Amino acid sequence: MPPALLLAIFYLTRDPGSVRSFLAHAGQIDIVIPAWYTADAYGVVTGVPDQHLLEAARQRGVKVMPLIVNPDFHQPTVHALLTTPEARTRVAQSLLEECRKHQYYGIQFDFENIPAADRDAFTALVRDTSVLLRRDGFRLSAATMYQTSPERPASSERPGYAQWLWDNWLGAYDLAELAKHVEFVSVMTYDHHTERTPPGPIAGYPWVEQIVNHCLRLIPKEKFSLGIPLYGRRWYAGTVRREGSQATATVHHHEALGLAAQYQLTPTWDDRDRAPWFWFYRDGLREYVFYNDARSFRERYSLAQSRGLHSFSSWVLGVEDPEVWKELPQAKR
Asked: Distance between CA atoms of 300 and 330, rounded to whole angstroms?
């Protein structure tokens, strides 16, 4: 039996490179999720679509499902919104009006840095918005952080990184309940390693498998969209933004290859994590670059196929290895 065809979902920003990538490869994209909207603490939705892109998507048969976020993933903002019923209602009604006005396929929530204590309130927002949109034929989806366990990690010592991560980033997503109310859940398998951890892969393969195995216990495979990162990260010596963090920067595929060429390096393929990486010395200090290419994409795409998932969701157009497009068929219209 041939492998299952996955829906191809890509995120889009207003960056010119992101726009060019979409226009060049729209024929291989089923759903595009442009980052167009934000919601403040009062539930006021702000944002406008790019009409040129909206028309281009329609002409090419690509479904448009814009993203709505809490600005800068600011926790006090999303906490105030979620814990105020009137604000949640305002968000839902505003999104319905935007869908009617622009005839979107639907909307995706991408609220992040949500306190775990607001778990039920976020589920209520998703449920109520879904009911409202569905009455008019629009769909709702949700982007969530990964989970590898249904419970907060235990620690015999003082709370550490894992506990902080759960309390502020992971614990607010009731995946089983969310899946009941959305078209699909885009589970982000990134970032495995961050500015608060030692250098490492963005989405190491064994770790992605662990996420998939756990989430499939909660999300029906027909509603599971595997988040696949296209970007990379560089760890270096420099000024940090907050206590407990390291200096890091996001790198595009071509930037990673440019650094490797500059320092006359051949990137290493990690057979365990199934991703490329390299290190070099700059000013006497070692820097690390972990990134993604077409090969790492293919490994994760094949995983989603083998599990019969709904789709994959990739962040973000414009940073990818151009060879990625050779891995994807033309979209079904």
From this structure: 19
pLDDT tens readout for residues 230-276: 999 999 988 887 877 899 999 999 999 999 999 999 999 999 999 99
DSSP state letters, 240-302: -SSTT--EEEEE-HHHHHHHHHHTT--PEEETTTTEEEEEEEETTEEEEEE---HHHHHHHHH
Classify the C-alpha dihedral 277-283-286-287 as positive or negative.
Answer: negative
- On whether the CB atoms of residues 188 and 231 are closer than 8 A, the answer is no
How far is 111 from 41, CA to CA, in rounded Å? 12
Q: Cα–Cα distance between 110 and 69 in angstroms, integer?
A: 5
CB contact at 8 A, 294 and 206: no
Instruction: Yes or no: say if 66 and 108 are a contact pair by the CB < 8 Å rule.
Output: yes
Span 15-41, pLDDT tens digits: 999 999 999 999 999 999 999 999 999
**Confidence band, pLDDT 50/70/90 cuts, at residue 157:** low
CA angle, 316 then 318 then 255, to 5° = 105
Q: What angle do CA 259, 264, 267 make, to 5 degrees?
A: 65
Question: How many residues does the structure list for the chain?
Answer: 333
Q: State in Å, rounded, how far the first CA of the chain is from the last one.
A: 23
* Single-letter residue type at 240: V
How much is the pLDDT for 271?
98
Residue 170 near residue 145 (C-beta atoms within 8 A): yes
pTM, 2 dp? 0.96
C-alpha–C-alpha distance, residues 301 and 312, integer Å:
7
